[in-house]
Write a structure and sequence with these properties.
Blueprint (H helix, E strand, L loop, with lengths): L8 H4 L13 H12 L24 E6 L4 E5 L5 E2 L4 H13 L20 H5 L10 H15 L2 H13 L5 E2 L1 H9 L2 H12 L7 H12 L1 E3 L1 H7 L1 H4 L13 H14 L5 H7 L4 E3 L4 E6 L3 E6 L10 H14 L5
Antiparallel strand pairs: 1-2, 1-8, 3-5, 4-5, 6-7, 7-8
């Protein structure tokens, strides 16, 4: 029985709400995608502005699909760990909403930014309120809120992705965290600027530390596809317990669709047609609500910071399967 003060049944939806699995030959589809996008693997530039990522081989490519029951299909370098970077912003947002509720949206918006992910431009004339939780300023607000709620934001997030992926070996990369910190002046500026408007509650050095550790988490395509399944399962975790009401899972998917690939979100929606979140490590996760999750990794990035081959692969995935929110 749910607590009397908890969300209503209409907020959650029925507990037996998961759709029946769709019968796709995901192995065959992934092999076809790998062949089709091979000419684009290696295109773009690795994220050299983070020195620890500058030596990653741009010719790597991996892709994995996880169905609702946790069965995973992969191709290429799908079991090779890589730096998740901004993909972790999805998990931080989910945990902050799950533990703190809708009050978070008083501190961060839900609109596309139209500017680079580390831009300071909009903050001044929007009074220190970031446009959305997936640009760096918005992610700092989310991490700040999670730190207030938990007392240890980065460890809370790490434990969550370990549990959802079923991989206890998922961990931080100290070299990447140190590299982020050593080159984190822009993020520090964002945090201090928002603090001047009263939109940051915790000490800036501690907040930045948790944010850099969060971005340094290493996972592979299978780990990320599994860890993101709660968004395909309408808020249900891997163990069947509920992380989020159905409405909040829907809302996170919506913000991923409109803001998850920075100022290229419109192009991503046009080509792929799924909620997605990218990271400058070259990974992208995408959600097919009620069906599956997908993760692709290829380190070469376009000017907006999204994987060139990764977007091409997800484009082929929705074209070959017909799986799209549209």
């Amino acid at each position: 029985m749910r607590p009397a003060q908890g969300p209503t049944e209409s907020e959650y939806g029925p507990e037996s709400e998961l759709e029946q699995p769709v019968d796709f030959d995901f192995r065959g589809i992934l092999r076809q995608i790998e062949t089709d996008v091979r000419p684009q693997v290696g295109q773009g530039q690795v994220a050299a502005y983070i020195p620890a990522l500058s030596c990653v081989d741009p010719n790597r490519f991996g892709m994995a699909v996880a169905d609702l029951d946790g069965k995973v299909y992969g191709v290429g370098d799908w079991q090779q760990p890589f730096s998740t970077q901004s993909i972790t912003k999805v998990f931080a947002l989910a945990l902050a909403l799950a533990q703190g509720g809708d009050g978070l949206w008083e501190k961060v918006g839900r609109e596309p930014s139209g500017n680079p992910f580390n831009s300071l431009v909009q903050l001044e004339y929007e009074n220190g309120i970031p446009r959305n939780p997936f640009i760096n300023a918005g992610a700092l607000v989310v991490t700040d809120r999670l730190q207030t709620l938990t007392g240890d934001a980065s460890s809370e997030l790490l434990e969550f992705v370990r549990q959802e992926s079923g991989n206890p070996d998922v961990t931080f990369d100290p070299e990447v965290a140190a590299s982020e910190s050593d080159n984190g002046d822009r993020n520090a500026a964002l945090a201090h600027f928002m603090a001047s408007y009263g939109n940051i509650a915790n000490p800036i050095p501690a907040l930045l530390d948790h944010y850099f550790w969060q971005c340094s988490i290493e996972m592979n395509c299978a780990d990320l596809a599994l860890a993101t399944r709660f968004l395909a399962r309408h808020g249900l975790r891997a163990d069947g317990s509920r992380l989020l009401p159905r409405r909040l899972a829907k809302q996170i998917n919506a913000v991923m669709m409109t803001c998850g690939t920075y100022d290229a979100a419109g192009e991503f929606a046009y080509r792929v047609g799924l909620p997605g979140k990218s990271g400058v490590g070259g990974g992208i996760v995408a959600v097919v609500p009620g069906v599956c999750t997908v993760c692709v990794w290829s380190p070469g990035l376009d000017p907006q910071g999204n994987s060139v081959a990764g977007i091409a692969a997800l484009d082929r995935f929705t074209s070959l399967t017909g799986l799209s929110v549209f």
